[in-house]
Design goal:
7 strands; Aminopeptidase; alpha+beta; 7-stranded mixed β-sheet; 5 helices; about 35% strand; about 160 residues
Length: about 160
């Protein structure tokens, strides 16, 4: 688990992981991506609201990123975003495992009780993954004129 400053510091000493992260995020966003994008997104988010942002990764021994997810936490609610799995590792349970790990850590460290995410209505593989991770559709909204489901998951205090 990294906050944005910890992630940047760690990346300075891990060239292979930095390259893997930039390649994965460029593929995910369908455009060029740099580490400066992470810092800019972090600073823009911090200036607008009081939140903490954390990144979660599952990697193999070759520093290849298998899956990534991000949590924006405000009080007891975390919004998940930037959930992405490298194409060759899809349909193997890595994304679901990463989301469950993220939720467990946010519960442990911050007492987070509720998690929210947005997913395009026609993204059937992602919907299936999120449902297996414990999320349920609560409503459908338009984001930039594209239908998205709002999904929630609540976890117990055990």
């Amino acid at each position: 688990m990294f906050d944005i400053l910890g992630l940047c510091e760690w990346l300075l000493n891990n060239d292979k992981f930095e390259i893997a992260l930039v390649n994965l995020m460029s593929d995910h966003r369908k455009r060029s991506f740099s580490l400066l994008n992470f810092v800019t997104e972090y600073l823009n988010g911090k200036s607008k609201r009081n939140e903490e942002t954390y990144y979660f990764f599952i990697c193999n021994e070759q520093h290849e990123i298998i899956t990534i997810s991000r949590a924006h936490c405000v009080k007891k609610l975390c919004e998940l975003s930037a959930v992405y799995t490298s194409a060759k590792y899809r349909k193997q349970g890595f994304c679901q495992k990463n989301i469950k790990r993220l939720m467990k850590m946010m519960k442990y460290y911050f007492g987070t009780k509720e998690f929210k995410l947005y997913v395009k209505k026609d993204n059937i593989p992602a919907l299936s993954c999120y449902e297996k991770a414990g999320f349920q559709i609560v409503k459908t909204i338009n984001v930039d004129k594209i239908p998205h489901h709002v999904m929630l998951s609540q976890i117990n205090r055990d």
